[in-house]
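Trying the structure run again after the queue cleared.
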Amino acid sequence: MTTTHTPENRSAPRTSEPPDHNDLREHLSEGYFPGTRDHFLAALARRHAPTALLWELGRLAPHRRYDSVDQVCADLEARTCPDFVTEPI
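Done. Tokens:
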């Protein structure tokens, strides 16, 4: 049996709505702080967190130290790209 990997199943879901960080809040407990992006990624990978969550955390600044899940969520929200215009202006 062969598994075909398409771009659709290798990237995090994209929507025009702001991301919901409730899953992130559930997976990142107080014991993970302070920490960096790589610290969080390693910890959640060890806990077999959903891939979409890992993709989301991958958008964090690589060397910034985060003191709370609120800081992580605020940084992710600030890094959310607006939708691109698909029609000519």
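The chain has a mean pLDDT of 78. Worth checking whether this holds up in the mutant runs.
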